Queue: 2 jobs
Job 1
Amino acid sequence: MTDPRDLVRAFADDLEVADVAFGHGAATARAEAEHLVLGYLDAHGWSPVAPEALRALLARRIRERIPVAHLTGRAWFAERWFVVSPGVMIPRSPLQELILDRFRPWLRKAPDRILDLCCGCGALGIAAALEFPGASLTLADVDPGAVACARTNVARFGLETRAEVGASDLFDGLDGDRYDLVIANPPYVPASEIAQLPPEYGNEPTGGLASGADGLACWRGILGALGAWLEPGGLLAGEVGDTASALAGAFPELPFTWPELVNAPRLANGDFGVFVLDGDGLSTPR
């Protein structure tokens, strides 16, 4: 029987010299190899490893530049395996560190209602709901494929009685009360930069990446309406990547806090591209 650890070592060596780009949940060849082998095992019920099948997936990873999560149907995020269908955004947000630390010290109390906006496969919101077992969860995305995948993950983690999943273009499809915690990882790449991304990103929907000429179109929509959806004293946690300085410049009146993270890699500009924003002073009528 082939030892999975031997495959991880061999695959890491191959990936180290291959013409591939990391960035979908793994920052190194070793981590990428682990995600390939362990994600495959999770998808197949942890039955004895099939080395030929895994080597075929590795060959496709290198030849076709398909992200590992789309090859195995699994993504490792916030210390859990999530189902990720082909064509759905792959979770890799550094917001996972804030979730696992329960948003301390910025979240004043355990939330009763959580919203994951632009949820993709639902990983951010589900991870938060598992950290806060008394909270209800709303998962919202405009992409039907993402909505279907999020429903699969809700069932996978046994959250059917606590979670609502639906199609929504930002807040437009939502109703009900305000939220104590809003988590958002919307598209934030300037449209002109999409063509410059490595081929791996072409496996994800362009609409899940690009957001107008400056990358802030979605964030303008979110922040412009947020006061009607976030409770006073609630918290928004968001990712904006390399457009962090542009966001701060576009909304100088908002008191963004940019956390220092411990486990996430820094971006090229030296920061982490995630922020928190307190709901005090934002409340507006609907």
Note: The two ends are 62 Å apart (CA to CA).
Job 2
Amino acid sequence: MAVYTQVADDELAAFLDAYDIGAPVSYKGIAEGVENSNYFLQTERGSFILTLYEKRVDPADLPFFLGLMDHLAARDIACPTPIHARDGEALRTLAGRPAAIISFLQGVSPRRVDIRHCAPLGGALAGMHLAADGFAMARPNALSLAGWRPLFDRCGPRAHEVQNGLAGEIEQELEFLEENWPADLPTGVIHADLFPDNVFFLGDRVSGLIDFYFACNDYFAYDLAICINAWCFEKDGSFNVTKARHMLNAYRAVRPFSAAELAAIPVLLRGGALRFLLTRLHDWLFHPEGALVTPHNPLEYHRKLRFHQGVKRPGELGLE
């Protein structure tokens, strides 16, 4: 979440006239994240999140994202629900941007991931994968293997501004992944961005999964690999085997995890690390002036990628 587009008071009031959620009481920009402009909105009738979709989001994808949240919520997955206006539409225009209001979820994102968070997250991820079955729409993953080289072509020439030699390392990794990316793994709708700040907890229980704006169709195991990368490394860069084992075991207690998926995990972890290295590198180098957002350091995922390059088998990660 972030704020790129400012919303004037009169624009907001006119926008809310289409809804039955009461007049605005307050709204405040949310600085976390990198993709869209987000506001915490308080009206006479409750709390909501107002999202304005920025230029990096294809408007044609928005019915998929909003429809998926409706689909998951109807199947008892704790996720935001789009608020539909009186005309039945969830997607409108505000300040020149496509915009939507979604429900506000109770809970707190973990500032420090403990082992106790990892099993509930694994179970919640598997539950989401199963609940998404039957969703009528599909969206290819634009930030999987086929999308990485075009992204590198844009930011690679300036990668030396972040670290000398980085472009060469990325090029070598791209070549490896293009030759070794797995095929024919179980596929469905994945979240693709389930970082700790996109998961709410009440105590040790997952109370909400949010920010579905990278959701797409891809390998279920790739989604788990993204979570392992995001949740199972410590601040000092070390990999926590116990966290990863708890996450995987809780996941497969809900959705069976095949031998082929497990065998592919080392390569999927490398792909997940490269994906976020590239997108963070892009955002670091092409940061919009005046945006109320701090881009993430891409070198965090460079370090994770280097770790995974030394792993050949899932057992080296404590995953059996």
Note: The longest helix spans residues 259-285.
